[in-house]
Amino acid sequence: MSDSENIHKMPNSALFLHIQKTAGSSIVDIARQAYGSDQVVSHGDYLNATPTLSLGAVDKISTKGEKLPIPVSGKEKYEHIPFVSGHFGYDFARKLMQNRYTFTFLRDPIERVLSYYYFCKTRDPNEYEIYALTQQLSLDDFLMLGLERPAVKACIWNNQAWQLANGYGNSNGRNILSFCEEEILALAIQHLDDFSYIGFAETFEEDRDYILKELNIIPPKEKVVSNANPSRPSTKNLPLPTLKLLEDLTHLDRALYNLAWHRKNFFLEKPFKFMRKLKRKFLTI
User: Fold this and answer.
1) What is the tens place of the pLDDT at every residue in 102-148?
2) Which residues pair with 200 in a beta bridge?
3) Which residues pair with 83 in a beta bridge?
4) Domains of the chain from N-terminus onward
5) The pTM is what?
């Protein structure tokens, strides 16, 4: 379909499971222009009707094995919104996925954690408690808390796998400590197949343009990046103890990311071989 044909069509309904710091904010900005701001839900909007928990409350609930507060049903509240996105997890998203183009983005897990830390350092500490806490801590201290303190762990410990396994805003009230590691990874891998498209921060513009065309939105010609922080240190400049902490925080995410990346590139490079394998596996009598 040409751009001239596209421009007269209404954008398709979409659901974007927006994992924090995976380069998704610029897509939300484009969606606001295409759909209209009142037709887009984004970031933490889905939590507006849910009580805000302090970090201490999250720690207490997690260690006691209690259930987290359950947000207002996403299906009932947002099914009329054509572009639903947010930092919610798979369990919240799944009720809204039917009859929508669904997508998410993944990012190199170590880069994502670093980006999250330096992002928090630049934010208003009065906006969220995690911002204020992060601004009091060195990188290593913050990473160690991610291994030790439940409320911080929920933000950075294998967050991509957690969001795709169950995640924030779930209807079952289960927190990240109520799953074993094997279950988180298995569910995350299984749920990848439920999305129309999996993009990557590392190939963002290519993936963004593909998704926008599927939504009947003309991709921007210029480079559009929101919430970027180019001044932060790169991975190659970090000391080995810091890298070890980052590796300990992201082992499930790295397994998930590597699998998703391999799937994407294997399919693009060897589509006919891939389809033959599928037919042999599922269509042989």
Assistant:
1) 999 999 999 999 999 999 999 999 999 999 999 999 999 999 999 99
2) 106
3) 14, 40
4) 3-282 (3.40.50)
5) 0.85
